[in-house]
Amino acid sequence: MIDLRSDTVTKPSQRMRRAIADAAVGDDVYHDDPTVNELEGTVADLLGKDDAVFVPTGTMSNQIALRIQTNPGDTVLIHAEAHIGQHELGGAAHNSGVTLTRLVGPYGTFSAEQVADSVPTPHAALPGHLFAPVTLMCLENTHNDSGGTVWDTTQTQEVLNTARSLGLKTHLDGARLWNASAASGVDLVDLALGFDTVNVCFSKGLGAPVGSALAGAADTIEQARRFKQIFGGGFRQAGMLAAGALHALEHNRERLVDDHTNARSFAEAINAADQIQVDLGSVQTNLVYFETPDAEALASDCLHEGVSMLAVGRTTIRAVFHLGVTAEDAQQAAEVIRKQSAIA
Ligand SMILES: Cc1ncc(COP(=O)(O)O)c(C=O)c1O
Questions:
Q1: How far is the CA of 171 from the centre of ligand 1 (A)?
Q2: Residue ranges covered by each domain of the chain
Q3: Cα of 204 from ligand 1 centre, angstroms
Q4: Which atom belonging to ligand 1 lies closest to the Cα atom of 212?
Q5: Distance from C-alpha of 189 to C-alpha of 173, rounded to nearest angstrom
Q6: How far apart are the CA of 121 and the centre of ligand 1, in A?
Q7: Between helices 218-230 and 58-69, what is the axis angle to 10°?
Q8: Which atom of ligand 1 is nearest to the CA of 143?
């Protein structure tokens, strides 16, 4: 089976399993697990932040970021297709009591003007107490639902400057920030620059079995540790998990460009088929979204031929490239899709 459903389907290699088995451990709730502490320090350094906290999932990391940087009744600016709004099951309202203002823009981006326009300007006839305070802006890089697209750094800084000038805190959902860095050649520190909090995941293209981290200033991460505990994320001998993440950071980052190459050649190959359309402009990293008249039918036909993908909409299928998929697999999968779409 060529499994293209997600980059979360990756399984730990033998070497990663050995690193996990050999990990030095302690009790992370008491902050004395040496491998977790090493991972947190490594992530903070990679992102140019004071500190980081290791958490079970990207969703928990994002939800903690919202919780510690807003108050109930606040409004959060976010892209219309962002994971936090689309796939975290109303967590923003449930855990933090905030509403989301969803900004629409190309490839998961929005502009500084849209940010400015979304923050109300009180005046004598309409005083500030008549508006819900806008207190946080979230970006997602790469942007999953837009095709794994990468934010341009100049545009990021413009949007951040505007948000800051309006008194907003800023959070980066960088579940796949590693891919953004690999694709753009921009250092992680520069991609994280200016954000108050940054989420990164080890369990996606990096191939670790579990884990994410939230990075930021020391006092912010101190608050995050409190909410990690409140949200039930207090780990004990989590060094076993952190060892997988450390191994992934050391060994699996450089190869991410191979996934991007495979995604590109796959996208070009299927785009040549009559019944398939790919916006090649959106294929910037390891995700490929394509249009076909009946997504569920095609995904099911391909599954019978050994290619597993997700129908994510009536006419949309997602295929994701990762360390379990070779260049040959990518070409073979494209061939299956071309054949099955011609039969349909
Ligand atoms: C952009 C983005 N953010 C956050 C998450 C959540 O990560 P997790 O599945 O670890 O909760 C995902 C998951 O795919 C994602 O794509």
A1: 14
A2: 11-251, 255-343
A3: 8
A4: 10
A5: 14
A6: 34
A7: 120
A8: 1
Say yes or no to pLDDT of 344 above 90: no
Task: For domain 255-343, give the CATH number.
Answer: 3.90.1150.10
Give the Cα separation of 197 and 69 in Å (integer).
9
Residue-by-residue DSSP string for 174-219: ETTHHHHHHHH---HHHHHTT-SEEEEESSSTT--SS-EEEEE-HH
pLDDT class for 340, splitting at 50, 70, 90? very high
3.40.47.10, 3.30.1330.50, 3.30.420.240, 3.40.640.10: CATH of 11-251: 3.40.640.10
d(CA 259, CA 125): 55
The answer to whether the CB of 23 falls within 8 A of the CB of 239 is: yes
3-state secondary structure of 324: coil
Substitution site in 60, 84, 138, 144 for ligand 1 pocket (most atoms within 8 Å of beta carbon)? 144
Q: How far is the CA of 32 from the centre of ligand 1 (A)?
A: 27
List, for residues 127-174, the tens digit of each pLDDT value: 999 999 999 999 999 999 999 999 999 999 999 999 999 999 999 999
Strands 2-3 and 307-308, by their bridges, are parallel
Q: Which residues pair with 79 in a beta bridge?
A: 103
Residues whose beta carbon lies within 6 Å of some atom of ligand 1: 57-59, 62, 83, 140, 144, 173, 175, 201, 203, 212
Residue with tokens 């054949």: 339
Centre of ligand 1 from the C-alpha of residue 72, in Å: 24
Enter the pTM of the model. Answer: 0.97
